[in-house]
Amino acid sequence: MRFLLLACSLAIGACSHPHSEVSESSLPTTPTRTPITVDSPRALYEQCRSGAVHLAGASETIEEALALAKKIARTAPKAMKEALGDAETMIDSAGAGIADFVTEPPSFEQFQKSIVAQDEKRLKAVQAANDGLHDLDEARGIVESISEDAKGPLKTQVTSLTSMFDVCVQDLEDAIGSLGGKIEKND
Fold first, then answer.
1. Contact 168, 65 (CB under 8 A)
2. What are phi and psi of 10, to 5 degrees?
3. For the chain, what is the radius of gyration of the CA atoms?
4. Rounded CA gap, 84 and 75, in Å?
5. pLDDT tier at 46 (50, 70, 90 boundaries)?
6. CB of 68 closer than 8 Å to CB of 157
7. How many CA atoms lie within 13 A of 122 on its CB side?
8. Distance (Å, whole) CA 154 – CA 156
9. Per-residue pLDDT averaged across 47-52, rounded?
10. b/e code 94-125 from CB counts within 10 Å (16+ = b)
11. Phi and psi (nearest 5°) for 31?
């Protein structure tokens, strides 16, 4: 009972004090760099290592999708070639964006010596993977529009390419998760 009375009197006392105006300039600013999001250097190292492995897998899958898009373009009717060229550009952009992040980090001892730089690289890898997702989404839209007009064996190839996008996207999403990042959704 005494505890309840004490809690009520504290709550009433806190509410009776006049509130001071808080100017926006007195609020703390958010840092320009996202801080290291793991509890230990070893955990960050494992995130970076796992992310690099996933990105390497995504890079291979994206490369396969690009090769298939080029193969389709060689046999596609002239009207589809331009659209396929645009899709190829987007697929290539997705692969190029993550290319700098597919190698595993240095040994743990070396990693610790440059932990802030390694975390910055991790954050850039997350952004590159998210950019790749957006590129692949755009390429998928192009290929799906081509799919509506494709016939016979061309339709089968275009459908295969569309299915490959699912694998590419999953690989990039897995990489983002491994790196401790968040997937940015298209608006």
1. yes
2. -65, -40
3. 25
4. 11
5. very high
6. yes
7. 30
8. 5
9. 96
10. bbebbeebbeebeeeeebeeeeeebbebbbeb
11. -65, 155
Q: How far apart are CA 83 and CA 109, in angstroms?
A: 48
Tokens of 184: 């940015």
Total count of residues recorded for the chain:
187
Tens of pLDDT along 52-110? 999 999 999 999 999 999 999 999 998 899 999 999 999 999 999 999 999 999 999 99
Give the span between the Cα atoms of 81 and 143, in whole angstroms.
Answer: 11
CA–CA separation, 129 and 55 (whole Å)? 8
40: left (phi over 0), alpha (psi -120 to 50) or beta: beta
